[in-house]
Amino acid sequence: NSGVVCLLRPLLLDVVPSIRQTTALALGRLADYDVDLAEAVVKAGILPQLICALPEENRYYKKTAAFVLRAVAKHSPQLAQAIVQCGALEMLVICLEDFDPGVKEGASWAFGYIARHNPELSQAVVDAGAVPLLVLCIQEPEIALKRIAASTLSDISKHSPELAQTVVDAGAIAHLAQMILNPDAKLKRQVLSALSQIAKHSVDLAELVVEAEIFPVVLTCLKDSDEFVKKNGATLIREIAKHTPELSQFIVNSGGVAAVIDCIGSCRGTVRLPGIMTLGYVAAHSENLSMAVIVSKGIPPLCVCLIEEHEDHIKAAAAWALGQIGRHTAEHARHVAVANVLPTLLDIYVDTRSSEDLKMKASIFKALKNILQKCTYLPALEPLLHEAPPNIMKHIIGQFSKVLPHDSKARRLFVTTGGLKKVQEIKAEPGSLLQEYINTINNCYPEEIVR
């Protein structure tokens, strides 16, 4: 408000190096504070002056200039675009080639803040020739530089298969894979994130990540004391599992499913989410893979997540995963039903609080439907007859109408437990599917019993 930005601008061209550097630092801290101040710095025409003599400046000034560019770029795609337009990327590339690790670190950080916004800005970073130099940076001995360079490669890779392919072509995967066992937790977080962002786009990219022999090494990350390492490790496994049955089978063979189940059991909250999704993706591919999740005792921890977690999206993910496990055959559905999952899902579905989130309600309904359409284990279905709303009742009655005509023992039990009585109380539209199911059940018994 006092016009300081305009007063600082001429000082960027001062003859004394320390004045130029301190001025840049002041501008960087102003720009870092909020988006309005960053815009004021850009509008004052600071950026061209900041970078005009950058190659000749000393390392302290280069570091500070990179900080200013990062501080401006972080706020919005428009401000990051302003940095691209003033020719700063070419100068940042020169900084990436600098001898001083601190200068490289500052430049990597600035590139990361520019690339993270959108595919166009990320492409501009690639076109400037930053990727091969970033891959060299992750091979440097300094941990801080490795972290920032890995983070920037992650930000570049996340937008599209083409951008991820650029990072792969520069030879990044092999170097990232070697760092999974690095003792530094913050570095591991970034390395796992970068590999996830590469693997998520396509089968080919996921296979390239797997071929770098990340299994079974990556499974150690699921036992890490750092929550973000756990989460990012599980995310990487999820991004590989989702693509094909073959990749999921490879994860199962490597002991990945058992490790993910242990991980879900040992943590809470959003850290669980990628592990829950992994089990769902593996189970979705085929009957055998779903059975592998069941045999590894994957159902109880998913049921625990339904009960323990307060966040709707985590409950919804757990419900979705259970639905994927139970939807294949009667045997799969029976395993889910025996674990007492159905009453838990029904309680969440009819709970007035969860009904406010329509997306959550839809995923719970879909999971119930997936399991119920295959479940022929009547002892698990019968208690639901007394609580289920009409849209779920239809699927339960449907299963009874399939089983009762062929099972005399089940027919007797259905009378003695009050199931048949409950069916008579259901009001169904004449000619509806539900009415057909009820008629089929009633036809299994003599008329006087039905009366």
UniProtKB/TrEMBL annotation:
Q: Which GO terms describe its molecular function?
A: microtubule binding
One cellular component term (GO) for this entry is: extracellular region
Q: Which GO terms describe its biological process?
A: epithelial cilium movement involved in extracellular fluid movement; filopodium assembly; neuron projection extension; sperm axoneme assembly
This protein's name: SPAG6 protein
Which organism does this record belong to?
A: Edolisoma coerulescens
